[in-house]
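User: Hey, quick favor. My workstation is busy. Could you predict this chain's structure for me?
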Amino acid sequence: MSENSQGHIPVMMQEVLAALPEETEKTPGIANGQKVVVDMTFGGGDYSRAFLEQTDFTVLGLDRDPAAIARGEALQSAFPNRLKLVETCFSGIDSALVKADICSEEQMNAGKVVDAVVMDLGVSSFQLDEADRGFSFMHNGPLDMRMSRSGPSAADLVAEASEEELARIFWTYGEEKASRKIARALVTARKDMPFTETKQLADAVESVKPRRPKDRIHPATQVFQALRIAVNNELGEIEMAIATAAKLLKPGGALIIVSFHSLEDRIVKQMFADMADKKSHVNKYRPEQEDFKDGYVLPFKGVKAPTSAESSSNPRARSAKMRVLKRKKERVAA
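Assistant: No problem, here it is.
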């Protein structure tokens, strides 16, 4: 596993490569007959580079962050006929396929157009390491957290949300036990001074929830996670993406997802189990049952985790979990 010049190390690369389907059913008129993998979290381009260098897939790289798409231009120049890049959020995967000329709108609506979809969930190392993005309190910067650099920021949310709404966000998305106490303190403090910087917010949280010697993480960690998820509608995007990506898989295709915390993994686990008929869950983003008539299967039980060697060399990999959903191949009548 290699580390690029900006310090980002891809997680579970070999496991993701091994999960790519060796053979899927051919769909005439799709990507000039080439196999297609959609890298839905292009980021630093590590997964996409591996797909291009170690497989024969055509790659569609998606990212809602315009900086990620700009970073990918060099890789696109090296593989001009096999890498296509589109700036979009998770839920835009279907329209991105049309925009990249992978398929027509009619083919996209019919589904069964891609061989694999890969999602590496959560915030990227690039975003965490860039102070001006406002994702981390390790370096002071504007309280932003917008992956797409558009729409309301974390500062807007902290300034405008009610005490009850902030408490709900901190509890639901951050599993923060002191959610009500922190929300009350922020609403009181913002009357005198708006929260505009990451350190300012982190200090305010720590004043309410002082760090104890036994604490392994900063007191503001869960609050920052919750705000990031809320600002970017991350969990809603994941649900919509899973439902859409599953429909777009060719028979024999695979949806491969690497998640990093329990909120994400819970959604993936439940939706995969639902689609594979292991359990029944009501989900507003799930396509109609007709879309699942061909069936899906879980190729292995539970999750795959990073090796002990990877977890030791890359701390960010320690909480990673990989799940895979495969679309069953259609039966041919005798």
